[in-house]
Amino acid sequence: MGTIYSKQERCHLAEINYSRALEINPQSSVILCHIGIVQHALKQTEKALKTFNVAIANNPKSPLCKFHRGSIYFALGRHAEALKELEELKEIVPKESLVYYLIGKVHKKLGNTDLALMHFSWATDLDPKGASSQIKEAFDPSIGRTTSSESPTSPAAEEFLADRRPGLQPEALNFGNLPDDSEDSF
Q: Which family is this sequence assigned to (predicted)?
C-alpha cells in the first residue's frame, strides 16, 4: 500500500503504510529506504537522512539507500559527503550510469571540470541514449531548457531520467543486476 500511495504522490499516506510495514519487519533496510524517500518528498530532509543512516547501518551495501542519501547531500550542498557516498556506491554498482552522472554534477559544483567531464563521459558510455542531453545541459543550461530548476527530491535522477524513462519516479530507479536485499525480505 505504501508503494501505491507513493506512486500516487500521496506521501503522508505512504509514510504511514511504510511505518506499519516497518513494525512487522523493523530491520528492513528496503522499507527504511522507502520511508526516507517519502520523508524527503515531504521536505523532512534531516529526518530522511536519519532514516537513510539507519537503513545503511542495517545494510551497508544497499545501493538505493546510498544513492538517495548521496542525492540529498548534493541537494543540500554537502558536496564532499555526496562525493564520498557516490564513490562508495560506484564500487557497489560499477555499471550504473546515473551514479557517474551525479558524481559528474558534484565535481562540476566543486569546480573540478576535468573530473566532471570524465564522469559524464563514463555515464554516456554506460547509457548512450539517456545521458547526452543531460550532460550538455549540466554545462550549458540554455541547451534544451529556458530555465534550470533543481528538484529538491532527487535532482540528478529527475533530470537524467526525464528523456530516458518518461514517467519514472526517482524512487523507482533501476540499478540493474543489483544484489537483492534478501535478508530484508519478509
A: Belongs to the APC3/CDC27 family.
Domain boundaries, the chain: 1-60, 79-175
Residues 6+ apart with CB under 8 A from 132: 124
- The predicted model gives 11-29 an average pLDDT of 94
Fold of 1-60: 1.25.40
Rounded average pLDDT over 146-166: 42
Which residue has cell 509514510?
A: 15
Domain 79-175 fold: 1.25.40
CB 181 within 8 A of CB 30: yes
On the question of a common fold for 1-60 and 79-175, the answer reads yes
Q: Which residues contact 134 (CB under 8 A, 6 or more apart)?
A: 101, 159, 160, 162, 163
pTM of the predicted protein model: 0.70
